[in-house]
Amino acid sequence: MNNELINNAAQALSIQGVFLRESTVRLKANFVPQFVAAELPLMPQYKAGPTGDYNLISSAHDDSASFKVLLFDFAAGIRLVDQRQLKALEENPDIADEALYLETTATFSAHYRLKDGADENSLVDAFGEFGRHNVGYHVWPYWREYVQSTCARIGIPPIPIPMYQISPNPDEA
Questions:
Q1: Which position has the higher pLDDT, 122 or 13?
Q2: How far is CA 50 from the centre of its chain?
Q3: 172 lies in some domain
Q4: Which residue of 15, 41, 94, 168 is most buried, as measured by CB atoms within 10 A?
């Protein structure tokens, strides 16, 4: 992680918002959480990280006000799996449907306005570093809220979402 590049990007950007782009919720067939969830040894598994590079778009609200926005996508997922089947699942991923009781995923888009006077051409590396290491901090509260409200809609107790942590190797995120 290059803190100087991240600081350069942070100085050139202003967060505009975080928006849900895509989501899925999937329950195992015949799994009725309100009746059987407490009886099962279910364990959460987590996955999260940036989905790739940023996109820079130009926006104009009228003839005089034009600005640029950087869009970073960040994907996260959680699933509840039967602890009794974890070893078998690790050895044979094809049995995932048997061990998997709940899965929810979401992709969020974090929007950052490029401040006036910032030269995007000189900040390409800084934006990439910022996307790999900082965007998750902005998205994480939205992901946590999404999981909590989804659990309520499904009828299960909230699944705790751990604190956001940066992977030491961005390819592992």
A1: 13
A2: 7
A3: no
A4: 15
